[in-house]
Protein: Acetylornithine aminotransferase
Amino acid sequence: MDPESIYKSVVEKDNQYVMPTYGRKPLLFTGGEGCRLIDIFGKEYIDCVAGIAVNATGYSNQKLVNAIKEQAEQLIHISNYYYNIPQANAAEKLVQITGLSKVFFCNSGAEANDGAMKLAKLHTKKNSFISTNNAFHGRTIGSLGATANIKYRDPFVPLVKPATFVNYGDASAIEKAVTDDIAGVILEPLQGEGGVNVSNAEYLKEVREICDKKDLVLIFDEVQTGFGRTGKWFCKDHYNVQPDILTMAKAIGGGLPMGAFAACESLSFEKGEHGTTFGGSPLVCAASLAVMETIEEDNLLENAANMGQYFIEKLSKMERNDVVNIRGMGLMIGIELNHECGYFMDAAAEKGVLLNVTAGNVIRLIPPLTISKEEVDRVVEVIDSIVRPN
Ligand SMILES: *Cc1c(COP(=O)(O)O)cnc(C)c1O
Structure:
């Protein structure tokens, strides 16, 4: 079949058989290399979406592909009733890079947050959480309770106990919101879906102190900010603030569905208190190890920090007069415009750049950590060239 027919048939089947939750773009990709994706017609794109901060090591990374191939040949899945070589090694590595004590493996970010909240409830014997406005923690019944956007939460609200939401960046608001039933505080050290909102050391340190003082469990959701996205292993490393529980997903498995959370020594589930069929399978753990090793061997933390800085410098020189603010850390960058900018996604794709928009008016750039200067230059050129419609 020719590309046009394949494209048409995929769109038809998708429309007919897949629940229309995503509002798809008219794009169909078949492969990629590094930061570049190729669509069915052979057109090349620089990808600043990276599967939503998942594809940290870039497309067709040979070390990752080989690790998955070799593990698939050997053993894909085994029950958690048994020991598992890649899982033990991935756990050791995660403990090393998080500075926490023990790990639980699950399959997504929402599940990681669910598990973290279960763990906090179990240890404090309390039920509620404090979360922040604009926070995104996932879409399961549990994690939705801590997700701020009422568009996601309201239709399901009798099923979850929503957190108490306070303004992001305001530590005293957290202190004021503490009641006898609060088990913990959950927050992203840098909000992603909420519009790339950067916090600061003072805020996070104060929140840490409040949690210590009031015996609350502090959960950092680093699902999006983890694994080098901000130029360090975790965003918390910029601030030297250690949570009690750290949740991870997105980039952790190199694109395989995987999540995890790590907790401090005093917080652990015991036998039978939590579990999942797929969590920590040999396959995803082998992929995760390859991702972590690649980040180290290819100096991707350094590249993310350097290219992030270069990106922001270049973006700041754009001629656009509709830019309110450019912010971010490492390769998690937001460009806030003074108007809704959803149209940017299609306009940039037309010119060979993939990006997405959060919070309505913030262009978000979260490319693979391998991006080069030349690619950054091209992305900025394209963003600069997109004119505001009327
Ligand atoms: C994406 C995301 C989640 C949810 O992860 P899923 O794997 O989609 O369940 C949770 N928290 C943050 C900060 C995220 O960016």
